[in-house]
Specification:
CATH class: Alpha Beta
Protein name: DUF1890 domain-containing protein
Helix content: 40-55%
Order of helices and strands: EHEHEHEHEHEH
Pfam families: DUF1890
Structural class: alpha/beta
Oligomer: single chain
CATH architecture: 3-Layer(aba) Sandwich
Shape: globular
Largest sheet: 6 strands, parallel
InterPro entries: MTH777-like_sf, UCP006600
CATH superfamily: MTH777-like
């Protein structure tokens, strides 16, 4: 088992689950990161976490799920060391979560931007982070391809 300092931990941050592609993309990325040896934590709102639980009842992709506010508090108190984070963004709240993750962790953050307003949301990001964006709403495949091109599990 790797020592604590060598452990790779990634957080997948989900806000409001209003846009359907978020749930499938979170599960897909959790699967890829888990297979790459990352301890993967899914942090989200109560509704977003329930959608994940229903979609993966046997926990094939889910390693750990946490309340988003509790996760932010643990990061602020430096009780949760992370290697990187991926924030699923489709509105201003998602931008705030991404900025918070970048500020609290000072580790690589990737904003995965989706939904009808993807271009506008992308233009509103003014802090350092990687961006993967597509106006996907119902069909996750275009954004999945962009995530595969970025291959964050190889980092």
């Amino acid at each position: 088992m790797p020592e604590e300092r060598d452990r790779k931990v990634t957080i997948l941050v989900m806000g409001c689950p209003k846009v359907p592609v978020q749930t499938s993309l979170v599960l897909y990325l959790a699967h890829r990161m888990k297979n790459a040896g990352y301890q993967t934590i899914i942090a989200g709102t109560p509704a977003a976490r329930q959608l994940i639980r229903v979609a993966d009842p046997d926990g094939h992709y889910i390693m750990e799920m946490k309340d988003l506010d509790a996760t932010i508090a643990a990061l602020a108190e430096e009780k949760l060391p992370v290697t990187n984070s991926f924030v699923f963004v489709h509105n201003d709240a998602g931008i705030s979560y991404a900025a918070t993750m970048q500020s609290l962790t000072n580790k690589p953050v990737t904003a995965i931007i989706f939904g009808e307003e993807a271009e506008q949301v992308t233009s509103e990001i003014t802090f350092p982070c990687s961006i993967i964006a597509d106006p996907a709403i119902h069909n996750p495949m275009p954004l999945k391809r962009k995530i595969e091109e970025a291959a964050p599990w190889d980092a």
